[in-house]
Write a structure and sequence with these properties.
Radius of gyration: 17 Å
Number of helices: 4
Largest sheet: 11 strands, mixed
Distance between the termini: 24 Å
Length: 256
Amino acid sequence: MHGAGNDFVVLDCTQKPFRLKRGQLRQIADRHRGVGCDQILVVEKPRAKGADFGYRIFNADGGEVEQCGNGARCFVKFVHVRGLTRKRELEVETLGGRIRPRLENDGEVTVDMGRPVFSGTETVEGSKVMRVSIGNPHAVQVVSDLAAAPVTTQGPLIERHARFPEGVNAGYMQVLDRHRIKLRVWERGAGETLSCGTGACAAAVAGIRQGLLDSPVRVETRGGALTIAWAGGDNAVTMKGPAEAVFDGTLEITEP
């Protein structure tokens, strides 16, 4: 599946337990020797009362992460197509907390991503970044020319910087007007992707927080556009965008 070009392998583990090891996940994500994807999404039964499903996210390097916004939209489409639920609005457990995605009448998915957490601004690798958590960590900076931004050179350095011991997603946004930005993201454990849902949320709320943007914000990525809304304060961030199935298949997984 893909959400605005951010592509996923989605595994249904509601009937059998998830037991894949890190090397096996890397094998699936390998674009030359496996299926190939930015992240692997795992659908499970919920552990806590009140939730409809559990949702785990593994980056292409096999490491588990807290949240993935584009993946959350694909998650909703997946459980509907597979007949796992008929509910249009779900409560889903993630490592980064519960999210509430909703399948809309136009086929797109809106996700309540929860309340953003700001950790201030600081200078990292020569650039001023705003630290924002959308269930997972982001370091967002404003650039004047997105095409010339040092995403692939500076991004890996920010991702692994000592100030971010758990790693961080490095976002680069260009403000086009008060309701529209262009965005590129170097994702922790995955590299630059065509789109990043939590990165779009982080960039939009960082821009609103700095007085550069007004909600809602259209976030234009290389893979497509997302709409982010945030009323400020302790309000939750919502994200709306597409989710598409590409193909179904069965893969025999060997020991790494």
